[in-house]
Design brief:
Number of helices of chain A: 11
Radius of gyration of chain A: 33 Å
Strand order of the largest sheet of chain B: 6-7-8-3-9-10
Strand content of chain A: 15-25%
CATH topology of chain B: Rossmann fold
Largest interface: A-B, 17 and 23 residues
Strand content of chain B: 25-35%
CATH superfamily of chain B: P-loop containing nucleotide triphosphate hydrolases
Strand order of the largest sheet of chain A: 2-3-10-5-9-8
Bound molecules: adenosine-5'-triphosphate, magnesium ion
Number of helices of chain B: 7
Structural class of chain B: alpha/beta
Largest sheet of chain A: 6 strands, mixed, barrel
CATH architecture of chain B: 3-Layer(aba) Sandwich
Shape of chain B: globular
Number of strands of chain B: 10
Number of domains of chain B: 1
Order of helices and strands of chain B: HEEEHEEHEHHHEHEEE
Oligomer: heterodimer
CATH class of chain B: Alpha Beta
Helix content of chain B: 25-40%
Amino acid sequence: MKFRTILTIIGVVIGTSSIIVMVSIGNGAQKSITDELSGIGSVTTLQVYQDLSSMGMTSMGSGKTEDKPILNDDAIKDMKKIDGVVAVTPVVNLSGGEIEVDREQYGVSLMGVDYGVLEDMRYETTSGKKPGANDENSVILGKDILTSLTYTGASTQLTESEVKPEDLIGQNISMTIKRTNANGEEEIKTQKLKVTGVLESTGGNEDYSVIANYNLVTELNEWQTGKKANVKKQGYTQALVTVEDSTVVNAVTTEVEAMEFTVFSMQQILDSMGSVFQMLQILLGGIGGVALLVACIGIVNTMTMSIYERTKEIGIMKVIGASISDIRNMFIAESTMIGLIGGLVGIVISLVLSVLINLIAGFFIGGEGGVTISFITPGLVIFALVFSALVGLLSGVRPAIKAANLSSLDAIRSE
Amino acid sequence: MVETREQKERGSIKIFIQVRDLHKDFKLGKEDINILKGINLDIEQGEMVALLGPSGSGKSTFLNVLGGLVPPTSGDIMIRDYHISEMLENELCLFRREHLGFIFQSYNLISTMTAMENVALALTFAGVKKEIRKKRAIEALEVVGLVDRMGHKPSELSGGQQQRVSIARALVNHPEIILADEPTGNLDSKTSADIMEMIYRLNREENQTFVIVTHDPDTTKYCTKVIHMQDGLIESEVNQ
Ligand SMILES: Nc1ncnc2c1ncn2[C@@H]1O[C@H](COP(=O)(O)OP(=O)(O)OP(=O)(O)O)[C@@H](O)[C@H]1O
Ligand SMILES: [Mg+2]
């Protein structure tokens, strides 16, 4: 192979690998952020809140709340009827609980959900099992529940207890809550909780909470505040809607929003980020594209040189019977090969680069399980290969036509 | 051979190549210079024609027009039943591939290819399969006595050997006509005689028609027809 051809191929290699690496970095950024966000609460879980403005209106005491819907059991029933919805549960929270494990005190908050639909929700246990529908006092522990933040002077330290939440499975733990009664005296209530499992990390509040039965949490809340909960009138502050799969998230979101509730889902964030990443990829791909354009000019130049050099050869071929298309195809095949070989080598190089980038980034950023800065999809590989071959082919067309149209006699006479 | 032109045209003897009032002008600046000024010629199948004449008389130009490498300005060329003078470039390519072989003074071999590859190249464009190409190329090299050199590049061969490779290349398609422009022009008299003997043998054995441009009166002894050109016209035509 001619040195000149090798240089041209190197041009294509640089062009192709810069496109791949650039786009792979866009891909990687998207992937790592998407993975991160998908971790925070399942993508298939929607958080529904009472419309914030309606809450404002009730607190203003106008007394007229009928025109704004209330997030009560009727609303939950209605949401259950929406296509694609698997489970709906109200959420009640209780904070300020304390448990004692291994003579250490840990503050906990309870998250009460409807145990009747717990089986259908995307809460998975890493060990143990979920409580049944009627297990009033059974709970699942968040995985970080025994991790406490201790403040020592200026620095914050994360201390993990010797005891793992898993060790508590099957045991009864007692939780205490306090209240101040009408006489200003402090009262303490102790509640036994039976641990049945540990929750898989969701990346959200659940990790630091105890998932408990809705009825139990309501009961404890009523004891703490001394007031009966009036769900019918005031509604729940929050409900969780679990949907079949990510494809129906947007449709369900629209329907719940039509009921005038505020919906928050990971999908909304992912969607808006998707377009940002698309822009990023186009931008990065464009930078690579410029490199490939330069390579393209290189191919045209090489082919033109090659035709000058081989004019006599072309003339000979025409004299001994090569047709116009024979000559044209010969040169187009050659330039396509330059593109294809450049593309293949470029793919290999970018795969190596991608691994290196991730290794180096992992070294600096740290974090277990490696870091994804650059992510090459099979689609990107195929695109790069087809694109580089196409660039080679198109760059070859003009020189090839020029070669094919040379006069055979003039060509044969040239030296 | 004393048939008149009229008798030939009536078909008692088959006219293979027929040239009528052939003109070729070249533009030189604004001026047209007439190189071929009305050539008439008939050649029968299997003839061996020598084309002589002073330098610049238009011999090469005539041969190139005959082979369809240069279009004529006016006039008619018929080879077999093909109207060469009216064919498009692509049709001419196909025609050359099937019916014509060329031999040049300067061999015109492709320097990066071996003798065998040079010979086989002519078959590539005819769409012959690779194994068959090789077999036929070796056969053609056998005819010119160069099988033992088939792996050599042109630069590794003598002038005579290179010319024999180019003859093998012209033969490999088994064309009916071979046009040769001073095939022995670069060779010494001994080698020239060898080459001419070989051409003569092919002419006899395969009944191929040869038109050979030459400066060497010695080569005319192999020919059935000797044509003298002068200033773009045929000055004399002798059948022997
Ligand atoms: N492409 C061309 N453009 C202009 N003039 C040409 C061209 N080709 C040939 N000629 C002119 O035509 C004339 C005849 O050239 P040609 O090559 O046919 O001569 P020849 O008889 O073969 O001579 P020689 O014996 O030296 O090879 C010459 O005067 C030459 O300058
Ligand atoms: Mg000449």
